[in-house]
Amino acid sequence: MKIESMTAHEIRSGLIEKRFTAEAVVAACFERIRQAEPKIDAYLTLCEADAMAQARSIDERIERGEVPGKLAGVPIAVKDNICTDGIKTTCASKILYDFIPPYDATVAKKLKDADAILIGKTNMDEFAMGSSTENSGFKRTRNPWDLERVPGGSSGGSAAAVAAGTVPLALGSDTGGSIRQPAAFCGVVGLKPTYGLVSRFGLIAFGSSLDQIGPFAGTVKDSALLLEAIQGEDPLDSTSVKHAVREDYLSGIEEGVKGMRIGIPVEFFQAGLDSEIAAAIQESIERLKAMGAIVEEMSLPITVEGLSAYYIISSAEASSNLARFDGIRYGYRPEAFENLEELMEKSRSEAFGAEVKRRIMLGTYALSSGYYDAYYNRAQKLRSKIREQFREAFQRFDLILSPVSPVLPFKSGEKSSDPIEMYLADIYTININLAGLPALSMPCGFSAGGLPIGLQIIGPHFGEDRILKAAYALEQELGLPDRKPAI
Amino acid sequence: MKILVEDVQYIAKLAKLSFSEEQAKKMAMEFESILTHFESIDKFDLSDIHLDLYSEALQPVLRKDETAVFPDKEKLFQNVKSMSDTSIMVPKILE
Fold it and tell me: In angstroms, what CA-CA distances link A170 with A114, A149, A303?
């Protein structure tokens, strides 16, 4: 069994039709991990014994004639900032190096209910702050397409795990592009759902008004399948949507793009965009036109400035959210301390990494007396203007199409010394989080050097079905999922 | 905007972090460059935007404030570094 070339749909149907067992799937998955992981380092924790036990239980239920869940027997990797009952959840931070959650995040529970099999927890930038997974407190993950390059971030481990063919599905979180950018760098499909569509209960918070959990997959249909399994209202997350939303994202996915109005924001195609990325996206635009989409240029004037608003708001929220890590109830605690104040200060100073400290400091500054109005308040006002800009755009267009990243996957260490340069890598993704919109990143080509190129499809709030429809049409037209990295 | 090492040390105190003189100097330089970038927001006139967090369109979403017993206390306290009976031990806060 070659797990690296199987989709979640193929695994589930193979199990139901009894062509193979869940135990065989999990065994193949770990065989692939043993082959790929020494090169990629995508995982922080592997759960082989539990995964095998769960697979056997699914096999027994199928044998008894029961109809298993939507993701029956499908191996899945989960980003290490999503709480998993009894399984270490570290956020790739030394401050949580030994933290074992006493409960499951709602999405982890939903995966269990759907009979997905948790294979392991994936590496990430510490507390999801970064765009390269180089900020992990534990190890460096490599891009399966070129081991010298980064997999993107912050969900770099999840993207690399799917790209390396160790799992067909993974979960990540996206605060400013942390699903879409690594998906683009690793040549897989990554979807950031509308804010509120997927519960954040049990996701260790970074920027609570921006964070959203979403799927990674090798194909658009698998992405839709995983979205179906994890979406929905949750009484444990007061920001999850209350009204009934679509539960089926697969029916109608093959309807095509004929008549769809797609906007191309000119500001996303100006100086700074890599020429190979621009050319690959242009090629996709031509294909969409040929399939009957109505593609027109449009303007989203606030683009670059959104980056400032994003870094002010997300850092402010992070400084507040990360105040809970103090060495008292759980996590890292220094060996020697004189008093409570010193215990907290030493715990945080010794265990947080440089980027996390930088963001906490920026956030504390932006919220401090005398600066609140100049930074945080103005950033919130600009955010409201950005939301309005998108609302107006979606009166004219069904979807907006853009690059995901201005640059191709870069070499490890290339940008890590300059925070601003690293922050600029998020320029095309952050405004989507500020507006709470859904957006998908999918492969649309390769550079001359063989690196994947991603394309972003942005939809209106709860427009995931429309995004998936266009992405599926383009995926079929481009035929890219068949191209895999050689590991 | 000029950021002094003293500013960094003051913010660090608020954030319960500590930096050496050398680290604080480096952070002051990074802060300056990041805050200069943030000034791009100033080119917009945002005076007509009023942030109303308690908009009429928003409905209260709070659950009832009810106590519930966590089913497995051992699991709940498994991450605590030092305990005495059912209490978490911390250093003395009163001398």
Answer: 14, 21, 30
User: Which element (helix H / strand E) includes A275?
Assistant: helix A275-290
Q: Which residues of B touch A353 (CB under 8 A)?
A: none
Express each pLDDT in A116-145 by its tens digit: 999 999 999 999 999 999 999 999 999 999
Instruction: Walk me through the domains of chain B, giving residue ranges and CATH numbers.
Output: 5-42 (1.10.20)
Active site residue A79: yes
Q: How many C-beta atoms lie closer than 10 Å to residue A214's C-beta? A: 31
Q: Considering only residues 3 to 32 of chain B, which have any Cβ-Cβ distance to chain A shorter than 8 Å?
A: 8, 11-12, 14-19, 27, 30-31
CA–CA dist A404, A192 (Å, integer): 12
**Residue-wise pLDDT tens digits, A348-364:** 999 999 999 999 999 99
What ipTM did this prediction achieve?
0.92
pTM, two decimal places: 0.96
Enumerate the residues of chain B whose CB falls inside 8 A of the CB of residue A89. none
Please give the domain boundaries of chain A with CATH numbers for all domains. 1-487 (3.90.1300.10)
Strands A261-265 and A294-298: parallel
HSE on the CB side for A356, CA within 13 Å? 30
CA distance A47 to A30: 10
Q: Do A345 and B92 touch (CB under 8 A)?
A: no
